[in-house]
Amino acid sequence: MAIGIDWFTPLVAGRFSQADLVVDPFSGSASTGHAAILQGRQYLGFETNARYVELSGKRLMAAQATLAPPSASGKLPS
Question: Is the pTM of this model over 0.70?
Answer without folding.
Answer: yes
